[in-house]
Structure formats: structure tokens, C-alpha cells
């Protein structure tokens, strides 16, 4: 696996998770799945992801809380975290940005655009990384 190709996907909907995993795997990404915020935070600390795709609606705590916990780990400070949600209002996008997400993807995910979007987020990294 080449550098910059490991994506942690935190998504509790099995169909959405399968779609993202299948599309990204077919595009050469290594995909690590997590179905709860806690699982995502724990896995991120051990898997050295290049990007985290974070659903905002999760069964234990929401994506905002998961992001807060990820940012507390110095080893994850430079990892871009992208909000993924069905909420598509401008206010939702602004809240995600203000909360520290590095980007925003709307559901339903575009299978044509997803690999390029992921590559762009990885290439861009975090604007405010230490």
C-alpha cells in the first residue's frame, strides 16, 4: 500500500459503509471501517489514517464529539477529518467548518466523484495543522 492511501470511514449505516468501502477500495485505497464514534476514535489512534471520513449521526456520540476527541490526540492533529452527512443546509456546512472539520461531503455520496474528493482532501491535508 502506498503512502497517503489509508482512509478510516466512520459510518453506522451498513449500506453506506459498503458503498464507500467498495468505491474507495476499487480506486486503490485501503479502507478501515468503524461503526461508532468510539470505535472510530480508538481505531484512528492505532491505524495511522491519511484521512477520516466521519458521519455526523452516530449511535454513541456524534461526529462533532468524535472530532473533538480525535483532535485531543497529538498524533492525529495533522490528519484531515471530513464530515459526511445527509444534512445539506448551508448552516450545517458552516457548523462543520466552524467545528474544525477539514471538509464536508453530502449524502448521497457520488460514486464518480468520491475517489477524486478523497484524493484532494489527502493532498490538501489540514490547513491549520501544527
Automatic annotation (TrEMBL):
Residues 6-122 form the Response regulatory domain. Keywords: Phosphoprotein, Two-component regulatory system. The modification 4-aspartylphosphate is found at residue 55. GO terms for biological process: phosphorelay signal transduction system. This is Polar-differentiation response regulator DivK. The gene is divK. It comes from Microbacterium trichothecenolyticum (Aureobacterium trichothecenolyticum). Pfam families: Response_reg.
